[in-house]
Design the sequence.
């Protein structure tokens, strides 16, 4: 299974879609947004809030891109080929989930490093550790949603569904523009999205407060929903493959 | 009794109203090279899918070396090349084959696989930048890299030109020389004729003939014995082995299941004039076999 993860990671870093959505786009957007000072508060606070938002945005891009990969693999007959090797289906799924989890690391690292090196963001070591940990672990629900779409839908449709989910959740969740500027009804929706809860955990840590219980509960709720979706889609794909 | 490499017993599979495989029974002893020959839609791919555990049969039993196919695949006893697909972009041939090899307990060394699939020197090419023939050889390499005892190939040469087909079979013969059991499906008759020890003809989901290609040609009695004859020729139709008589001008064409006996009888009757014996090709046999039930 390690061989499988290794192969999938190689494919990920050679994937143009991953480089654009997972690394280049969040870094560029971070540089633009943080220097436009769209975020509330002073410039340094703004640079921190936007850094978290864009790291979350990039991580989501990586997670969804991984899910779209499953649909491509299915269309290419790769999943069937894997069934003709000694690997078990469970090993393949586990490998793909681990690939997704590892694949978001470069996105998070690129934005955080840009924050440190370009915008001179300073945080305490425990804040850095918590933010990295929360940004990383928090991608699991999105990976599952992406994989579910990848199993449930065919090649191009899955890719489009994942990009739509990725951009939709990023925008409505307040990763591009803070929800403070949203109209009331949209802000009400935003507060229930997994993307807003996901980023909120790290926004709280960055501002020096403990992550809110509400965000944890909402994100865990979505984890269950997306986990069930991925399980259902995987089982259904197995019957028709 | 030695366990068969492949065993299908009364296997049936329907897709909606279409019965793709209908009570098919087939046993392949170890070491044989068997061609599964049939027209498009005869049920070859479905049969292979069930044999490999990719498609669950509606009824009947399947086994590879006496155990459940899925289990046999996980133990590395069987390797297979599906009819299409299985190649992923953004990896090199070396990366792909090294990964597949790593899933097996005792794979072949990479150099040997590259040599068998005639890809030596191509190993650092990206899989998505290969020609059709090269891609097919990579897929072939994936089937044999685990050094399985049974190799199943679904229409391995369907997408290849004549030259690439010949190269493919050259690689294949090296493999069968090593005592592997090989099952391949094809709708190219000459391939079945030249490459297989045994030809299993399937049509509409069941076996219609099974034997060496010589035996199959004999079953349908298609060797033609022709002589020049004038006058009353109807008696030639009663000669030993003759199943049909046809007169074209002064030539009489006799279809015979036993051409030796037919020629002997002709000689005894003193009727050998411009004798010509044309062996059937498998194509005629095949057409005769698969057309029989259309009536």
Sequence:
């Amino acid at each position: 299974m390690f061989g499988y993860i290794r192969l999938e990671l190689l494919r990920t870093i050679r994937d143009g879609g991953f480089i654009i959505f997972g690394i280049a786009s969040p870094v560029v957007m971070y540089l633009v947004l943080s220097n436009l000072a769209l975020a509330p508060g002073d410039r340094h606070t703004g640079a921190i809030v936007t850094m978290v938002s864009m790291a979350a945005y990039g991580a989501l891009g990586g997670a969804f891109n991984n899910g779209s990969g499953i649909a491509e693999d299915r269309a290419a007959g790769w999943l069937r080929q894997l069934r003709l090797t000694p690997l078990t289906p469970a090993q393949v799924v586990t490998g793909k989930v681990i690939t997704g989890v590892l694949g978001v690391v470069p996105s998070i690292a690129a934005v955080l490093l840009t924050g440190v090196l370009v915008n001179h963001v300073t945080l305490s070591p425990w804040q850095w550790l918590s933010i990295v940990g929360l940004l990383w672990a928090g991608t699991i629900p999105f990976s599952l949603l992406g994989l579910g779409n990848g199993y449930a839908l065919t090649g191009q449709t899955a890719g489009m569904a994942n990009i739509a989910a990725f951009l939709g959740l990023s925008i409505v969740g307040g990763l591009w523009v803070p929800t403070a500027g949203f109209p009331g009804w949209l802000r009400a929706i935003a507060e229930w999205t997994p993307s807003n809860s996901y980023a909120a955990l790290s926004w709280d840590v960055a501002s020096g407060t403990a992550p809110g219980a509400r965000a944890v509960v909402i994100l865990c709720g979505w984890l269950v929903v997306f986990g069930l979706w991925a399980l259902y889609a995987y089982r259904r794909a197995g019957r028709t493959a | 009794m030695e366990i068969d490499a492949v065993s299908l017993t009364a296997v049936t599979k329907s897709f909606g109203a279409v019965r793709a495989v209908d009570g098919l029974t087939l046993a392949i002893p170890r070491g044989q090279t068997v061609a599964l020959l049939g027209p498009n839609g005869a049920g070859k791919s479905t049969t292979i899918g069930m044999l490999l555990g990719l498609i669950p049969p509606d009824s009947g039993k399947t086994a590879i070396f006496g155990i459940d196919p899925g289990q046999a695949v996980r133990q590395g006893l069987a390797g297979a090349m599906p009819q299409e697909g299985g190649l992923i972009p953004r990896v090199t041939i070396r990366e792909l084959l090294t990964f597949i090899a790593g899933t097996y307990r005792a794979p072949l060394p990479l150099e040997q696989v590259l040599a068998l699939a005639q890809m030596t020197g191509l190993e650092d090419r990206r899989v998505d930048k290969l020609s059709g023939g090269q891609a097919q050889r990579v897929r072939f390499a994936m089937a044999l890299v685990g050094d399985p005892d049974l190799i199943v190939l679904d229409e391995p040469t369907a997408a290849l030109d004549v030259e690439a087909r010949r190269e493919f079979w050259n690689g294949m013969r090296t493999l069968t020389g090593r005592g592997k059991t090989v099952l391949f499906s094809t709708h190219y008759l000459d391939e079945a004729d030249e490459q297989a020890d045994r030809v299993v003809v399937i049509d509409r989901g069941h076996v219609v003939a099974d034997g060496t290609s010589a035996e199959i040609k004999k079953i349908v009695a298609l060797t033609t014995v022709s002589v020049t004859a004038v006058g009353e020729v109807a008696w030639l139709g009663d000669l030993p082995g003759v199943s049909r008589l046809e007169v074209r001008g002064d030539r009489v064409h006799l279809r015979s299941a036993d051409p030796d006996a037919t020629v002997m009888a002709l000689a005894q009757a003193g009727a050998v004039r411009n004798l010509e014996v044309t062996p059937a090709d498998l194509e005629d046999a095949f057409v005769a076999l698969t057309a029989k039930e259309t009536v």
